[in-house]
């Protein structure tokens, strides 16, 4: 790497980062790029942000730049805004007194970059790079990158004791980069794994998300299982129950759906999954997306079994297709087309052997896959707001004040349109409403 070779970073960001380093060094301080950005450049991975470290103390940094945000001044970190980019600039520091396994109670500024690098988690994250590309790499980080090895700086047990999250970072890096974990690092992790109990579930989830989103999540899952780390999280992550064969196609799935596959392969009900997703601090949007997916799966199998079971004896081929189609449409109305298409994506990755359903149910579930595929492409009306009639129009036409009847009527009309019994036309919808009313 030479001066102009931030090959994997946004060039403008790299240029402004260099300006910040230059300003600091011109004022007589030392300054380097450090951590993830240097590691990712050496690995040839895209870089999204650049952290800097300097011998200058926060007040000195503030004095040198017009736009500085004091983001974490007591820990030596300020954010320098340069050319529209934000750079976290942290004073060389040591940390001590990790009484809670996650945060240092004492931070001391130091003058030697090596001392700063010594407090960092892994050798590959403890490489600093100066303005013209010269590297400070006292722990052999580059050699470990070449050897595809995650190795702690110094004694692994100490690094993991300081911050329990580092154990998940270790597995995440090994999984995402397809690296091995150095023997002593692995041993230290096993010894310190109970420390994970102190880590907030939100931080744990973020690490698991990064791991799952990577190119080889099964590798990470295998390591999580083997290390026993999953048994040590604050909130249970019951992935040991996963049926491994169900996960084979996981990389084909979009990131959030990978969580859905995990939940499904653990055979969790939507109610239990809902509780877990809340405790794992997922946003409501993601949680509902996944819960709907599981509900879809359960309801689909349930309604198929019931209808198939009502109309046929086991293993018979005759089934009431129309009753099934109607029950699936009800499901589509309740859970939405997005759920149908999510479920379809997931279903397509599952090996038939996973499901363990009687073949006569399996066959009909497979048929819903075809249907779901059609529904997601066609303009099937499944939302009340897509009906060609409004509540107001109904109230006027019926000459009746609004009330619970109105919602029920709209639902009924939607069901009829979605099933293809009547067209979605205002006049027909009004007639149908009148017919229903008079027959009540
Ligand atoms: N628990 C942690 C977290 C971070 N670091 C150090 O702080 C740097 C920056 O951390 P962060 O931005 O959280 O992660 P990155 O290593 O940059 O990697 P990623 O962005 O992929 O999470 C790391 O490289 C590492 O040197 C550490 O020692 N211990």
Automatic annotation (TrEMBL):
Q: Where is the Poly A polymerase head domain?
A: 31-151
- The EC code for this enzyme is 2.7.7.72, 3.1.3.-, 3.1.4.-
Q: Which GO terms describe its molecular function?
A: CCA tRNA nucleotidyltransferase activity; hydrolase activity
Q: What keywords tag this UniProt record?
A: Hydrolase, Magnesium, Metal-binding, Nucleotide-binding, Nucleotidyltransferase, RNA-binding, Transferase, tRNA processing
Q: Gene3D superfamilies from the entry?
A: 1.10.246.80, Beta Polymerase, domain 2, cca-adding enzyme, domain 2
Q: Where is the tRNA nucleotidyltransferase/poly(A) polymerase RNA and SrmB- binding domain?
A: 179-230
Q: Give cofactor(s), names only.
A: Mg(2+)
Keyword Zinc found: no
Recorded family membership: Belongs to the tRNA nucleotidyltransferase/poly(A) polymerase family.
Its name, as the record gives it, is tRNA nucleotidyltransferase (CCA-adding enzyme)
Organism this protein belongs to: Paenibacillus peoriae
